[in-house]
Batch of 2 targets.
Target 1
Amino acid sequence: MRQRLANWLRRMQSRFATDAVRAIARWLFRFQIEVGGLDLVPPGEPLIVAGAPHRNWIDGFLLLIALPAEPRIVFLASENAADRWWRRFALWLVGRFEPVSTTSALNRDALEAGLRVLARGDRLGIFPEGWDHLSGPMREIGEPRRGVAFLARQSGCRVLPVALAGSKPLWRGKTLRVQIGAPLAPLPLEANKGEQQTWSAELRDTLQALLPPEPPETPVDKRRWTWLTTWLD
């Protein structure tokens, strides 16, 4: 009974979070969000959702908006994401972020947290380039970290590549683009380091090929709410 209640509460929170984020993006910020490839998302399957390039705070919310509410997407967020009370409240309200350390390329605590998310049937949202690519080129996918291949291999879950465009700079009414690709099969458990590197390179190539065209520009003097670019920095 207790477990059923917990599962029900998680589903309700997931639907609320998705509806709330979509409403804010559409009605308050007036973002025009174009999503392609939604038919490639397997219903009900726990997946590793690999989004790139990650260049701004809105990228995680774009994945929430673009994908179905269930299974819910849980992100491993930087521990700095909860350094202020209003951020802690927002993360609690959404219920889809688990703060982890970002001090190493292959953090064991973060990997274990990711495996727990997948084991309970949720989807794991991850930015495979790592934590230090926010200032990277907008049209170039960085080299994925080894942790993505490890999580896919250990969990047996497929990886859903999702390419993003238009997330920086931001203004009210801007067009944002999301392109979803076909799920990639995980490596077998016996895969060696070289095979993991090859798989990671294939993930990068897949994301690069999926990258949507940049949305149309708006003259600088007609942009409104340009503070959105750095709103949650």
Note: The helical segments are 2-28, 59-66, 85-94, 108-119, 146-155, 193-210.
Target 2
Amino acid sequence: MAQVLENEKQLLIGKLDEFDARHSQLEKEISDPAISADSGKIIALSKEQGKLRSLVTKYREYKKIAGDIAESGKILADGSAEAELKEMAGAEIAELGAKCDNLLVELRDILVMADDAGIGSVIMEIRAGTGGEEAALFARDLYNMYVKYAEGKRWSVEVLDFSTTDRGGFREAILGIKGQGVWATLGYESGGHRVQRVPETESQGRVHTSAATVAVLPEPEEVDIQINPSDVIEHVSRAGGPGGQNVNKVSSAIRLEHTPTGITVNMREDKSQHKNRAKAWRILRSRVYEHFQGQKTAERESQRKKMIGSGDRSEKIRTYNFPQNRVTDHRINLSLYTLDKIIAGGMDDLITALRDYDRQQRLKNL
């Protein structure tokens, strides 16, 4: 296990002390009767405390061991101490020192990835790009890949909206995915995905290049972002397209427009206006949250944004080459010749490589 450098250690301990102090402060605030009467405040404070708990618990374990090492060090430095006692103290320092070093490495890795680990729900948007019908079929393949991967992780997947083509491709698919570590894992998927293969529509066996885009947004809870209802304009209309007479006759389609940012969401998937409104608000909260978080962390997270992608249609992050059974992630210059496995949902090797690279970049910027 890699060691924490001395200059890193001082910075790391300083940050951990801040989190430890904040955790203690939260304990006091939660137990304050004046605050406990406010259910909204208690929920927010408890959630913040929950995010810090595992980190602080491990740090307190580290401090205890560091204290025991210091006590053994005093025995070694004591000229009047018996030789046998000094020998025991030396052995304890060696044993506890290794444990202490390993804990510090764990704390460092948890700290640099902590923000991502705490987000357990995302909105994923998959859209066909250039390439016509083949691009829509590729978007469908990406949808199936992510659903199978999520099922393998035992995450819950909810289809919020989708639009299909005549040949069964997807013009657009919007998913809600929930589970432990979902953002820390799927956050790397935002950006442009390119496929090179012989399309089903190609009669002469020529390889074509098509594209699809993926955007993955953390889905905040209502306590994480407050949107003033007066800032949102709602439009209700009839949902055209397939779905029978009810879809076309009843005003069930919802369009939300967040006036401060100009962000809009259209939802017509369900026959129920109420369900469409609830889905539209979930997507709107995610997009507005991402908008403001992006502004707030643009400079601090510039390296990460470059690495994981921003969902920009022009940003190519990965190529799926079917003739060579190859997947290439252009951000980390990694090629894996297991496309058949990856497209079937076996994405672990790819995701692990991205996370390892990301962790190293964050450590460099610590």
Note: The chain has three domains: 6-117, 123-220+312-364, 229-296.
